[in-house]
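TA notes. Do not distribute before section.
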Amino acid sequence: MLNRREALLAGVTAGLLSAPARAAQQSGAWPAFPAEEIELWPGIPPGAPPILPVEQVIETGNAQRHGRMVKGIARPRMKVFRPSKPNGAALLVTPGGGYSVIVIDVEGYQIGPWLAERGWTVFVLYYRLPGEGWANRADVPLADAQRAMRLIRARAAQYGVDPDKVGALGFSAGGHVCGDLATRSEARVYDPVDAADRLSARPAIAAPIYAVQSMRLPLAHQGSRDMLLGPEPSPDVQRAHSPAQNVSAATPPCFLAHAEDDTVVSVENTLEMRAALKAAGVKVETHLFTAGEHGLGLPGPAGEPARRWKELFVAWARAQGLG
């Protein structure tokens, strides 16, 4: 039997699908990759290897329930989900995948339409994977996330977005990207390329969901740590890339959600992040669920509280003035 993380990677879920996506799934079709996209970098991204990785889409589901994953990302970009009635707020969404792939359907293309139906303009980020030959590997995902935030703000008028109402939401390893962005938004991890880079990369709110956080063993998720930092990282490198170690009063308000029975990424990652946020005086909303494993919102017993995390997030975001 598949565990929750295996089910997530196989795409056997409809819990986050919008009504049109559910109808498409039931008919055997699947929503196409959104046509509208924003390239992050002019030309080849910084720190490129001599031979660029070749992008691959890996299908782990079936004709009825796709579960696409992507790797070999040499052209980092954002896919855009526009709402029919914009509420003026935007979210940068960073899917997970252990820093070895990006789980683009389950943690990107399903939550994107759901949020867009509620007025959010959603930008799903294809970030570069650190183990694919890029220089300064540990900061490559953060560089893409910073650049993405700045581009969203630079084009805010085009999308009907208030540049002060741009948040970040990430899952698993993508939750680490989100947490890193929240705590190191102004760290210089790339050389400015245009006027957009004069804008702030700090998200107005951040929501690392069942997130990889610590890079210290035994708490760290080993696979994500190995891909991000390489073999045998020093204590200083581990600390520099553990978001709880970088929380400050400048960190934006955070929404945290995790299941106690998550055997892939320990809930202690979220507890450590919460403690750091509280110590710094940063507003934090925390939801810990008895059951839900890794991949909140996947099919489970009717009424399972973990399946309600997204409604809780939207209510909290609105209370912060977004949405």
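Switch to the second chain here.
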Amino acid sequence: MAGHSAYLWNQMSDLFEASGIHPPDAPLADRLRPRALDQVVGQDHLLGQGGPIRRMIDGGRLGSMILWGPPGTGKTTIARLLAQAAGYQFQQISAVFSGVADLKKAFETARTRRAAGQSTLLFVDEIHRFNRAQQDGFLPFVEEGIVTLVGATTENPSFELNGALLSRSQVFVLKRLDDAALDQLLDRAEAHMGRVLPVDADARQALSVLADGDGRYLLTLAETLFALPDGDTLDVQGLAGLLQKRAPAYDKSREEHYNLISALHKSVRGSDPDAALYWLARMLNGGEDPLYLARRIVRMAVEDIGEADPLSILVANAAKETYDFLGSPEGELALAQAVVHLATAPKSTAVYEAYKAAARAARETGSLMPPAHIRNAPTKLMKQLGYGEGYQYDPHTEDGFSGANYFPDGMERRIFYAPRGEGHEAKLRERLDRWAAMRAAKQGDGPSAE
């Protein structure tokens, strides 16, 4: 219901704005809504001189576009101001509350306007919420120029929007508002209200942190502070007591999830324990399943470390078992310890690469049998066929190494595992080189690299 109310309020706001007045008791964020593109903060890469949207305006013709960015970065405002600057009629629908009938009505209205010489900018909020068939329904109206489509989404368009729709639109990425942009908004709020916020300098900075890049949410917080009795000035502790901390923007089923887990994995791979701990904390704070993180940590141990530090996989599995035993919050410390161990461990993908190469060779060579000397011979017939003949038990040989061939007959020997000498693999490299020399001496040939 909250989302529906916000949508209806926006519709009412448009009517008041068209009349040049503010709606009664309008929220501060609505009263401070920019009236021109130059007033939009934090998106100069799109709207500043030389920016792609600015070039459209200067050229006098708008193209269909997708505005992709976090909440509170100005997507709706930019769409409305684009229509105003280009002389288009602004029409807004929400994919959350609109169905096929609403779309048909919007397109027919736009068709009628076009016949009268008036262009329509159709703004579709949360456009990713329309299913694939509904998205396809936009195509003929966009292609015929009946509407100029401006879609807004907080989700990655590559995953959520049809390729056909994307091919007819430009995707513009809106940035999360930085501290400078948020500070501009607070300055505007103070100028509008005719007084400064009742907070000290540290609390004012904390206010921006709480907003987490969302300008609309920042102004909502500011409006709460302006409502305090005169004379009160809050410090950080007082601000925390008044305002509830906002849950971080994080959806475990969406792109943010994949961005953060990728950041965690790559920080470990890049041997940066501090960054790795930060991303781990971000995901845990966002409500990520700790066991999902534990599984990914085990994957890091086998993919990126392997035999360079064989202890890593034990540490990773132990962290998972510890979390199972202790639960939250104590078990999260075990995950943090595993992340630090893996980030500071030597790295090697030699086992990972060796297995992939061996798998390719296995597919290529089909059903070649093991050489006869290492086949079991439980029956007389098998012994007569030479199964097991000449097999040497390596631990009982003089050097503890027979140098026998263990590849199929008719298959050239290949090297899959080639450690580069990081950590524990330095010793393995020396041992493998020694065995290779002994094998060559015993067999009279050398290996070939895969």
